[in-house]
Amino acid sequence: MIASEAKLPGPVVSVGAEPSNGVTQLLALWGRGDAVARDALIPLVYDELHRLAKHFLARQRPGHTLQSTALVHEAYLRLVGPSPVHFADRAHFFAVAARVMRHILVVHARARGAERRGGNNLTLVLDEAVAAPAEREVNVVALDDALNRLAALDSRQATIVEMRFFGGLSIEETAAALELSPSTVKRDWIVAKTWIRQCLEV
User: How many CB atoms lie within 10 A of CB 165?
Assistant: First the structure.
């Protein structure tokens, strides 16, 4: 199981700095439950995700909403295209990307909120599977706070929400990345998203 509160490593490594077989090996190790390998993957995608997020955030207009999964998917297409790094396991890439994107967006939202003295923070569009249609736009800081609270109660459920919302993974892909059965992920997902909804309504 992936720990829901893993810290981002300090040094940032360029995506092109590691050979393809190195990434593939890390993915294989992570697939066998090696959390160290998972953390080693994060700097390999951090630079590209950060550049992409910065580009989208710079274009954001007041009142405009942002779909985090769209950023992750665009980054994936770039990383597996002309980049020398090839991600052999899509689910694991999206799991790492989800964690990085959550970190980037929350840092940006908190900084913007501080600049505006608690004013309009970054608003994200939730997947309809997480929120009811009328409640799809949520404050990213509020969502992050809710996920942190959930992680204190059940880290696996918090990770599942993170991977499904920020990474755009399906139930089956989330189960593969966490080495769980789809039925277990589906059960935890139902419980977790209900809990998140209640937190966001407060």
Answer: 25
